[in-house]
């Protein structure tokens, strides 16, 4: 194995498949785990005990903002549009339309079925009542995330939607929230915002489910709230951004470098990876990263991410997919000729981008699918956010007398196998009643 400590390490040769998989251990799994856990636990305990006053103190401590109130007045939300240019509003509007179109197709369908005559089974759909949306804002405000959360909540027809974001909340966040019919907005961020929505405070209501991405502290807070409460769910672990690119010899190193950097700039814990069987693509990409980084801002953040990232050279293209499936990335980009032919090799990914003309930024902002996606390897068991995450399915069944008679033998036999007499009698009392008539 060869390790070159220059911006982003490259690994090649003499390295077994399992060693290559270990190289992809995520930054959050490598270090700091215990500290993150106990810091977040402390924040959750404080909010649970002291409510709003803890939130106000954390706003000052973490975000250096002295907040007198937490809820943004409706007048401030209404005024937000005045401060935005037409160009900004048009971009938001055009992204909104595409995201809305894609999500409208996701609605759960109702089921109406009679497996045997007289046994009527349906599935009805109900929106979640109270939902809490977290919009990141530590590094930079993300109005695109407001749409990714607000649009599916709106389509699902959730009754009460609240939004939390770190102070100071920018006009573009307020404007985009209003576009999604969200008017209950609180200026609080980080783990403390998740705690507020999970426990409830004097001014912030406890919700049924918390949605939204965030940094390592936000994501850990969601994990702990999910564990500490029985009646507050979370959407997923949508933590620091991850991008894994698989490239063949036809790929363009300029595009690969640009895509890797686009996620490196999200935060110091972003995980950026290139896997390719082609050594020229690997080295040219690294040089390109070096060229492009000079024109970017947030260099410290990017450098930190690149340090965690890596370029791995494989023996062949199929090995790339093996490593990627094992890693289960948030974003998977396929920079291979006829990329569509390789979909069959992919088992785990939050979202897939096919070919050289599908940059991840397109999905981040405007193509339509959701950008709130599972990280930390959870794309192996969780899907990206959608309308159905804001809905519940409830099954309904209604049997006629004939239907019950037809099903009775099966139920009685199974109740006897499980030695549950009361279950059996719930059937026999009725069957005897019907027969006596
Ligand atoms: N997976 C996804 O779907 C997805 C989508 C969008 C963004 N993201 C990720 O969201 C993250 C946004 O991060 P961000 O930092 O810009 O904003 P953020 O809103 O997630 O976090 C900012 C807050 O973190 C808290 N914080 C900062 N330092 C802390 C510390 N030492 N201890 C405890 N709390 C602390 C503060 O309260 C601050 O307000 C990025 O990592 C980005 O990659 C992920
Ligand atoms: N790439 C992020 C998800 O990992 C989403 C985002 C928002 N704005 C820009 N990008
Ligand atoms: Zn992004």
From TrEMBL:
Substrate binds at residues 241, 263, 266, 331, 364, 418, 423. The keyword Electron transport does not apply. Pathway: Amino-acid biosynthesis; L-histidine biosynthesis; L-histidine from 5-phospho-alpha-D-ribose 1-diphosphate: step 9/9. It catalyses: L-histidinol + 2 NAD(+) + H2O = L-histidine + 2 NADH + 3 H(+). The active site is at residues 330-331. Gene3D superfamilies: 1.20.5.1300, Nitrogenase molybdenum iron protein domain. Keywords: Amino-acid biosynthesis, Histidine biosynthesis, Metal-binding, NAD, Oxidoreductase, Zinc. GO terms for cellular component: cytosol. NAD(+) binds at residues 134, 192, 215. PANTHER family: HISTIDINE BIOSYNTHESIS TRIFUNCTIONAL PROTEIN (PTHR21256:SF2), HISTIDINOL DEHYDROGENASE HDH (PTHR21256). Homodimer. HAMAP family: HisD. NCBIfam families: hisD (TIGR00069). This is Histidinol dehydrogenase. It comes from Blochmanniella vafra (strain BVAF).
């Amino acid at each position: 194995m060869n390790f070159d400590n220059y911006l982003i390490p490259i690994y090649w040769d003499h390295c077994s498949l399992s060693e290559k998989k270990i190289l992809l251990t995520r930054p959050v799994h490598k270090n700091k785990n215990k500290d993150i856990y106990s810091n977040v636990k402390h924040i959750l305990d404080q909010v649970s005990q002291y409510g709003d006053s803890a939130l106000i103190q954390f706003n000052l401590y973490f975000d250096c903002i002295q907040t007198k109130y937490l809820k943004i007045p409706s007048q401030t939300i209404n005024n937000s549009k005045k401060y935005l240019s037409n160009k900004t509003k048009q971009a938001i509007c055009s992204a909104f339309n595409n995201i809305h179109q894609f999500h409208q197709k996701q609605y759960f369908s109702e089921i109406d079925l009679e497996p045997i005559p007289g046994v009527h089974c349906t599935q009805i759909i109900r929106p979640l009542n109270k939902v809490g949306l977290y919009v990141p804002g530590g590094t930079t405000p993300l109005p695109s995330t407001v749409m990714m959360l607000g649009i599916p909540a709106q389509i699902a027809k959730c009754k009460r939607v609240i939004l939390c974001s770190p102070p100071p909340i920018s006009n573009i966040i307020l404007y985009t929230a209003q576009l999604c019919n969200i008017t209950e907005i609180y200026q609080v961020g980080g783990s403390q915002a998740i705690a507020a929505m999970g426990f409830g405070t004097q001014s912030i209501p406890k919700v049924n489910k918390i949605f939204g991405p965030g940094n390592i502290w936000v994501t850990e807070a969601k994990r702990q709230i999910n564990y500490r409460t029985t009646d507050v769910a979370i959407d997923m672990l949508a933590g620091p951004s991850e991008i894994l690119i698989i490239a063949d010899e036809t790929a363009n190193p300029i595009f690969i470098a640009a895509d890797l950097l686009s996620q490196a700039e999200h935060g110091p814990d972003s995980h950026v990876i290139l896997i390719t069987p082609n050594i020229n693509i690997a080295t040219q990409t690294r040089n390109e990263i070096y060229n492009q980084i000079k024109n970017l801002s947030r260099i410290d953040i990017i450098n930190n991410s690149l340090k965690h990232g890596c370029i791995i050279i494989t023996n062949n293209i199929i090995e790339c997919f093996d490593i990627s499936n094992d890693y289960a990335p948030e974003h998977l980009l396929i920079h291979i000729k006829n990329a569509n032919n390789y979909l069959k090799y992919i088992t785990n990914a939050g979202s897939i981008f096919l070919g050289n003309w599908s940059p991840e930024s397109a999905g981040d902002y405007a193509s339509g699918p959701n950008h709130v996606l599972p990280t930390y390897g959870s794309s192996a068991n969780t899907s990206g956010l959608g309308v159905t995450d804001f809905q519940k399915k409830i099954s309904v069944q209604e049997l006629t007398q004939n239907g019950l008679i037809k099903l009775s033998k099966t139920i009685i036999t199974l109740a006897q196998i499980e030695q549950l007499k009361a279950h059996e009698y719930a059937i026999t009392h009725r069957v005897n009643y019907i027969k006596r008539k």
